[in-house]
Structure formats: C-alpha cells, structure tokens
Amino acid sequence: MRVARLSPLGSLALGLLAACGSDEPEWRDVRVPEEYEQDLGRSETAALAVEADLRAELLQPLMAGDRSRAQQAFTEQAQVRTFTALEAEPSAHGRVVPVEVEPSGQVDSALNLTAQLVGLSLGGHCARGEVELDRFWLGDTFAAGRFELRLGWESSPGDARTWRNDARLTFLAEFVLVGSRWRIDRCDFVAGTYVTGPGARMVEVTAQTGLHYGVSPRNREMLQNFADQHQTLALGGLSAVDWEDDGDWDLLATRRGQLALLFENDGRGGFLPRPLPMASP
Fold it and tell me: Rounded to whole angstroms, how far apart are CA atoms 139 and 213?
C-alpha cells in the first residue's frame, strides 16, 4: 500500500484552506455553572423570571408567526443548534402521523431557528402554546436550563379540510441578563416529537347519539346536594365492549347501588338503550 506524504509546508497550507473554507462557526456546548445558587428562593425567583421572558419574547411571537420578534428572545451573538428538516404536510386520509424530531448538529443563527419553528405551522393558525422550564441552574454571570416548547396549529375554519399539528421540542440553553430581561445566549436542540393528524373539532353530540344518562331532575338535584356538601359521589364507570359480537363497540354503564345500563351501537354512529339481560355476568 502506498501512502502519500505531505511536507510540513503542504500540511500547513492544507490546514489553512480547511479553516478558510469552513463557514460553520465553532460550537461550544451549553454549560452549567460550576458554582450555582444554593438558595432555592433566589433560584426559583430567577427561574420564574426566565420562564416569563421565554413566554413573552419567544412563545407568544412564535404563536403569532412573527419570527423576527421571536429573535428578540436571543442575544445578538447567540449561537444555536437546530433540528433536522421535516418533510411534513397536513395529514391526508385521516391518519395521525407522529415523527421523531432529531438534532441536526448544525450551528446556525437564532433567526433560522425561529424560521424553522414558524415553518412547522404549515400555514395554519396557532391554537395552543406553552413553555416550561424544568431544569435550572443560576450562576454568577449566567444561568442554564432545559425548557420545552409545546405548540399546536390548526387549519383555518374556511379550509377545505381540517387538520392539526402538534410539536413538543426540548432545548438546553444558556441565559444571560440583558438589562432587565433574560436572553438566550446559546441554545442546543435536544429532542422532540411532531404529530400531524386530522383536525375534526370537538362537537358535543352525546344527546344526539342517544346517550341519555343521569339527566333526570331528581338526579341533578341529588348531584347538586353532594356538590353543596363538598362530598364525593362515585356513581360507577363506563366500559366499551362488543356485547353482541357484531363488530360494533357497545357501551356498558355501571352505577353503584343501581342497575347497569347497556347502550347498543346501532352501527350508524348512534346508541340505543337496551335492557340488560338478567343472566349477564
């Protein structure tokens, strides 16, 4: 086997070319302060302030689809590592499609990260949003923590089909105080999930399907008496079972001290109350 050898000058030139040709800035992992605040009161106060700033400066702009304003949650020199691009689209055929979101390892700008996050909306409007800081260390010059972003988007009421997307994304970050606000100075994506699915909105159809259960005036009066007396009333439970082995799920309602009720699935999206046979188990 022949091995090509470079002269010392050639090795130096090759190294310089590699350094000049790399556009990716050098990455430093998110640090935890070597000495952090042991006073839980002070640490908790700072953690609540960080979470409040994340909510106001990052979450709310993302929910509004304003990536430029979301960039204000970061310092000007902030470095981030993003997640892999997702080839996502509104779910077709009524299927729920979960996707594991993985780190890309790519060092990028805060603007590109916020653009990635806004892009997960697929053009829908954001209906749900939360941010939670679940790990936190307060140091003398900076703080570190882990936070989770939870965002949910839906199709607009006038769209031809309804759909919804939900993202849960976890980040490690370093925070610094800029004036009176905590800003993200370094942010590393850890892991996440992204789910697309049909977005049929919740419509109350209980009465329409024939499920009339405990709605008599006497029953309501009894429940109100228990509520007024701050007592707990355990009435039983509800089970789904194919009682007749016809391939349709029926409902069996049990009530403490009372007869059980059987609601037979009519195969058309409704239920019919049926007497429960005496010989039933």
Answer: 58
Give the number of residues written for the chain: 281
Beta bridge partners of 182: 177
Strand partners, 183: 176
Instruction: Say how many C-beta atoms besides its own lie within 10 A of residue 255's C-beta.
Output: 14
State how far the Cα of 66 lies from the Cα of 125, in Å rounded to an integer. Answer: 12
Q: For the whole prediction, is pTM greater than 0.85?
A: no
CB 184 within 8 A of CB 76: no
Helices H / strands E in the chain, number of each? 6, 11
Q: How far is CA 182 from the centre of its chain?
A: 23
Using CA atoms, how far apart are residues 1 and 197, in angstroms rounded to an integer?
A: 57
Q: Do 196 and 91 form a contact (C-beta atoms < 8 A)?
A: yes
How many angstroms separate the CA atoms of 278 and 271, rounded? 21
d(CA 224, CA 212): 18
The whole-angstrom separation of Cα 12 and Cα 17 is 9
Query: What confidence tens digit (pLDDT) does each residue in 154-174 have?
Result: 887 777 667 788 899 999 999
Helix (H, G, I), strand (E, B) or coil at 5: coil
